[in-house]
Amino acid sequence: MAIWVTSDWHFNHKNILNYCRQEFSSIEEHNDLIVKNYNNLVGPDDLVYVLGDVGFVPAQELSKIIEQLKGRKVLIVGNHDILNVGQYRKMGFIDVVNHPVYYSSNIILSHFPLRECLDNPWAINVHGHLHNGELELPNFFNVNVELCQYYPVSMKKFEEIAKENCPQSRYQPFGQEWYAKWEKRRERTG
């Protein structure tokens, strides 16, 4: 079983083609490519974290697309996900959450980039939402499909990055925590 992450499918969102996906001549072409690329990588037993903005209603049309996608899917709700939890579950999502998910002790999955990961060397934020680029910060990774050639991304990539670049634990010796420089500054000024 493999674990994948993806974001911002925007199925049936015709306006997204004008905004940032001009390479598609129709929303059907857009939807078909995402489904094809996804199913080329994801197996039936794989787990996929979808970091929001699945697609636009009507729910019945969106459901027809989601049902084509392999794997067990978890939705972290994005700003365009307006259906209720029951509707998303009926489409095939095994879980639907309205908050970030701690994938591991130092990898956080979210729709929006998380403020709590700024200047925080123990945490990696895998997110979506941003369409025309990425944050230029070493611990933020945007998996919006348009930045990933319309494919999901293996979580192994982020597990390796976390292993190589993050402290083994968020619990650092006293005085060496990530926020220690601000504490010391406050002591001097305060």
Characterise the protein shown here.
- With 190 residues, this protein is of the alpha/beta class.
- It has six helices and nine strands.
- The mean pLDDT is 90.
- A five-stranded mixed sheet has the order 4-3-2-1-9. Strands 5-6-7-8 form a four-stranded mixed sheet, with helices on one face.
- Helix 3 crosses helix 4.
- Strand 5 and strand 6 form a beta hairpin.
- It has a single domain, classed as Metallo-dependent phosphatases (Purple Acid Phosphatase, chain A, domain 2, 4-Layer Sandwich).
The CATH topology turns out to be Purple Acid Phosphatase, chain A, domain 2
The secondary-structure element order is EHHEHEHEEEEEEHH
Number of domains: 1
Judged by helices, strands and strand pairing, the structural class is alpha/beta
Write the layout of secondary structure elements.
Blueprint lengths: L2 E4 L9 H4 L7 H15 L5 E4 L8 H8 L5 E5 L8 H7 L1 E5 L3 E4 L2 E3 L14 E4 L12 E3 L10 E2 H11 L14 H10 L1
Parallel strand pairs: 1-2, 2-3, 3-4, 6-7, 7-8
Antiparallel strand pairs: 1-9, 5-6
